[in-house]
Amino acid sequence: LDAMGGGPDVVQARIMANLPMRRLAEPDEIVEAMLFACAPGNSFMTGQTLVVDGGLSAV
């Protein structure tokens, strides 16, 4: 954190400023993506990377 120039609140604000959604994910949002990937109805999806990053990879 010191290398990033501030305490936890400053670092979190800098990270969120670079995310298109301007917020961090809630734990249940990550869990929902995991449940989707593991669901029996999703059995035909193979070899994919499911990106849950608030749009950061689209920038």
Automatic annotation (TrEMBL):
Signal sequence residues: none
Lineage top rank: taxon: Bacteria
Record's protein name: SDR family oxidoreductase
Organism expressing this protein natively: Salinarimonas soli
